[in-house]
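New to this. Look over this protein:
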Amino acid sequence: MKLISETEQLIIRQLTLDDAEFIIQLLNEEAFIRYIADKNVRTHADAVNYLTNGPLASYRDYGFGLNLVLLKETATPIGICGLLKREELDYPDLGYAFLTEFCKKGYATEAASSVLNVGMKDHSLNTVLAVTLLDNEGSNQLLQKIGFELKGTMALYGSQNNLYEYTSA
C-alpha cells in the first residue's frame, strides 16, 4: 500500500482489498447514499468488486484515486479522499466521504487540503474540479474553505450539482 500523505492528525494511504469491510460500512452510511449515491455495496464480494474496479483501477490507469483516511493516533479508518478522473469532466476532481461520527471535526478539510496539494504536485496538475449537490452544505463550505471557486452548476448522474474549480497559482 502506498502512503499518500501524513498530516497533523491523519494518515492517507491508497486503499487495498483488505479495506473491504470499512468500504461496506462507509458506502452504506445514510449521508453517503444521500449525497453521493447508493453504490449497492452490501457484501464483502461487492466491496472487493468496488475496490477492484474503482480505486485500484484508477491507481493503475491514472496514478491516483480515492484513498483511505485514518486517524494517526489510533489507525482508525474514518473516510476516503482522493482525486478521481470521470469521463464527464475535463479535469480530475476531488472526492471524499467520511463516517458521520467523524464529520464536523476538521478531518475532511485536513484530508482534502493535503490530497489536493500532494495530488496536484505529484501529477503535475494545474486544475482540479469538484462537484457536490446544491444542498450539501458541508461539502460546499469545505470546498470554498480550501480554495475552490464556484464556477456554476452542471447536471451529473441525474442531479444538479455545484461545479467548483481549483487552479494552482
Observations:
- The chain is about 35% helix and 30% strand.
- The mean pLDDT is 96.
